[in-house]
């Protein structure tokens, strides 16, 4: 492989990896608030892309995206209020099955509304063949949009959880829900907020990446598995580590084309997931949250 | 004691005969085809009931074992070895009587593995894969176990979808019938429809008998102890890892058995049999049957698979299973078929009548 080609693969890998990281961060936000791995997290990404594609036919692109993100946040809130909130100390098995049922439900609804077709938003700047050249590396401007958006999301979350009152309240609930409630924090509201937040960042990622990866009613499942791999790789609840894990997985996947037939590209992530689960269930970067995940029966 | 144990099985056997008689008398024998298929689909469900309901270990990848069974048997009985007839291992296999020569559809000579050894190879393969996967993975709990088994199922799906040797997206077709014993052949031909129906349901009855005994035995008590509190079970001297692994392998063999028979019955298998949605359906059926309830899972499995195979759900096929899964887990996590629920419903009736304004 020539160095140029290698760099091209790296760029592609980083782009996909950034999206996996966003899914992983979404898993982490919900997990920290509820102790639930939301198997429908990938569907939020799909919904964001799908809704934006439909809306941009009649609305300007930024407005369509904004509305798509807000609508998906609404779906996130609805999911929590209708299906999670009122359950009285559900078992982990029950929650797994419920969120899997939710992901199927959302996917099948999307199939009814949008059909089986593959859709995408137009490129934000230029078109499919526009390239920016950095020396020998040629990059689509959309890649920069993706990376920029993901960077903004990660920064926003860091500031939100670190500096704002609401973010700190959410962290307090994650640390100890009873204590947080005694301090006057609306713990139930924080759980809803975690679903809204996870849905929002997923939808935004789904919008910016759709010109490159396209979106289909069933693209969520694959993203969920990749995102979970990244979450296990980087640990839950640490955005920077999730970003690192995402980039590693994206690049590995992209480079795997050299040794594996393209049809098996998706198998790589799962193989990595299984290997980590078997040998390092606490995550490669050693993380308490993932260790806790293992402890739960 | 033994009388009550065999009573439900006898009732089921009588029902099986009754259904056949009614279907044949009413000239509706085509229903038997779907009931035969539903019977084969029940085998993985019964195995999964043992694993999920009794041992409390979730698996979202059991369609993978079903597909391994079907694909291995289907591949071996269709892959033509004629051009390799002179290679040592092919000749050795031929010498052992494992191969059968014939002609393919174009009249060229063909040399394929006989169904019996192919079936045994398929079951051994499923058992081996289950052992290798299960040994490390069953140490995991909760979400991690769910994701790991989901990952396994996805790998099998992607593999059969991507492998040109296994027919990629088209799957394997023209799989020969499986002559089980003289006079009994696993085949979808309408001439042997009735005997195949009894074969499938005989297998279901036998599995129920076997698993029913297992559940009542020391092993069954150990599994329930693991489900209740794994640490306590370990402290009581139960080798929990070993018990879980045995159940995992057993359920995988049952799934593969269903896969082998259904594949020879249909004469083909495609990648959709390995899809995650198929695994989720199995989980849904076990859940709606009441988790630790072999009879509930069987009843629900036959009902839902029969309706699904008849196309009653139309384009909403997957959606129906998703909604069932959600509904059951939200409102009746103990399943639908349990006496308490019925009793509670009955108690509601008179109270509802009294509450009405007169």
Helix and strand topology:
The complex is a heterodimer of chains A (297) and B (358).
Chain A: H1 3-34, H2 41-55, H3 61-84, H4 92-114, E1 132-134, E2 137-139, H5 141-163, H6 165-175, H7 177-182, H8 187-213, H9 219-234, H10 239-256, H11 265-279, H12 288-295
Antiparallel strand pairs in A: 1-2
Chain B: H1 2-25, H2 30-54, H3 62-78, H4 88-95, E1 99-103, E2 109-113, H5 115-137, H6 142-162, E3 178-181, E4 184-186, H7 193-216, H8 218-228, H9 230-235, H10 240-266, H11 276-288, H12 294-309, H13 317-331, H14 339-355
Antiparallel strand pairs in B: 1-2, 3-4
Helix pairs in contact in B: 1-7, 2-7, 2-10, 2-11, 2-12, 3-5, 3-6, 3-10, 5-10, 11-12, 11-13
Task: Walk me through the structure.
The complex is a heterodimer of chains A (297) and B (358). Chain A is built from twelve helices and two strands, in the order H-H-H-H-E-E-H-H-H-H-H-H-H-H. Chain A has 297 residues and is an all-alpha fold. The radius of gyration of chain A is 19 Å and the shape is globular. The mean pLDDT of chain A is 86. Chain B starts with a helix and ends with a helix. Chain B has one domain. In chain B, the strands form two sheets. Chain B has a two-stranded antiparallel ribbon with strand order 1-2. In chain B, strand 3 (178-181) and strand 4 form a beta hairpin. Chain B is mainly alpha-helical and 358 residues long. In chain B, helix 2 (30-54) packs parallel to helix 7. The longest helix of chain B has 27 residues, at 240-266. The chains are: A mainly alpha (297), B mainly alpha (358). Chains A and B meet through helix 4, helix 9, helix 11 and helix 12 of A and helix 6, helix 11 and helix 13 of B.
């Amino acid at each position: 492989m020539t160095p140029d080609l290698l760099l091209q693969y790296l760029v592609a890998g980083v782009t996909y990896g950034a999206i996996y990281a966003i899914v992983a961060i979404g898993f982490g936000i919900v997990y920290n608030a509820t102790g639930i791995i939301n198997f429908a997290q990938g569907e939020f990404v799909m919904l964001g892309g799908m809704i934006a594609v439909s809306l941009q036919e009649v609305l300007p692109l930024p407005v369509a995206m904004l509305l798509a993100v807000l609508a998906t946040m609404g779906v996130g809130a609805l999911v929590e209020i209708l299906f999670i909130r009122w359950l009285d100390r559900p078992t982990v098995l029950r929650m797994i099955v419920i969120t899997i049922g939710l992901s199927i439900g959302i996917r099948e609804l999307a199939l009814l509304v949008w059909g089986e077709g593959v859709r995408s938003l137009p490129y934000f700047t230029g078109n499919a063949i526009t390239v920016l050249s950095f020396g020998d590396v040629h990059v689509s401007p959309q890649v920069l949009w993706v990376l920029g958006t993901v960077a903004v999301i990660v920064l926003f979350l860091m500031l939100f959880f670190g500096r704002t009152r609401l973010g700190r309240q959410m962290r307090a609930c994650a640390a100890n829900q009873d204590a947080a409630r005694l301090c006057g924090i609306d713990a139930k509201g924080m759980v809803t907020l975690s679903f809204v937040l996870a849905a929002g960042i997923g939808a935004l990622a789904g919008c910016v990446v759709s010109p490159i990866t396209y979106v289909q009613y069933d693209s969520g499942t694959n993203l969920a598995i990749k995102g979970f791999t990244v979450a296990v790789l980087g640990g839950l609840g640490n955005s920077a580590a999730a970003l690192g894990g995402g980039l590693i997985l994206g690049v590995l996947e992209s480079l795997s084309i050299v040794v594996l037939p393209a049809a098996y590209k998706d198998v790589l992530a799962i193989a990595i997931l299984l290997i980590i689960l078997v040998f390092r269930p606490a995550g490669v970067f050693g993380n308490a949250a993932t260790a806790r995940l293992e402890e739960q029966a | 004691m033994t009388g009550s144990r065999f009573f439900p099985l006898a009732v089921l056997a009588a029902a099986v005969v009754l259904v056949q008689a009614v279907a044949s008398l009413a000239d509706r024998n085509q229903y038997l085809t779907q009931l035969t298929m539903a019977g084969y689909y029940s085998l993985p469900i019964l195995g999964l009931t043992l694993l999920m309901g009794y041992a409390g270990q979730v698996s979202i990848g059991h369609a993978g074992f079903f597909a391994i069974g079907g694909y291995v048997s289907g591949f071996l009985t269709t892959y033509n070895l004629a051009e390799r007839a002179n290679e040592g291992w092919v000749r050795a296999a031929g010498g052992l009587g494992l191969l059968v020569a014939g002609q393919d559809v174009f009249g060229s000579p063909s040399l394929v593995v006989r169904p019996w050894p192919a079936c045994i190879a398929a079951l051994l393969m499923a058992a081996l894969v289950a052992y290798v996967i299960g040994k490390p993975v069953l140490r995991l709990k909760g979400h991690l176990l769910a994701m790991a088994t989901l990952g396994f199922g996805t790998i099998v799906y992607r593999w059969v979808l991507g492998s040109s040797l296994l027919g990629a997206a088209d799957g394997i077709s023209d799989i020969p019938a499986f002559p089980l014993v003289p006079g009994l052949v696993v085949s979808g031909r309408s001439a042997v429809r009735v005997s195949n129906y009894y074969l499938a349901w005989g297998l279901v009855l036998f599995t129920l008998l076997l698993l029913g005994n297992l559940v009542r035995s020391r092993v069954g008590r150990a599994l329930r102890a693991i489900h209740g509190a794994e640490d306590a079970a370990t402290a009581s001297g139960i080798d929990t890892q070993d018990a879980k692994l045995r159940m995992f392998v057993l359920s995988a063999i049952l799934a593969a058995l269903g896969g082998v028979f259904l594949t020879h019955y249909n004469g083909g298998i495609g990648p959709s049999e390995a899809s995650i949605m198929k695994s989720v359906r199995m989980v849904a059926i076990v859940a709606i049957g009441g988790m630790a309830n072999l009879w509930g899972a069987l009843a629900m499995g036959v009902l839902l698979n029969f309706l699904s195979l008849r196309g009653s759900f139309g384009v909403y096929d997957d959606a129906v299973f998703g909604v069932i899964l959600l509904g059951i887990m939200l409102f009746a996590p103990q399943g639908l078929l349990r006496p308490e629920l019925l009793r509670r419903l009955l108690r509601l009736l008179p109270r509802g009548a009294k509450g009405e304004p007169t």
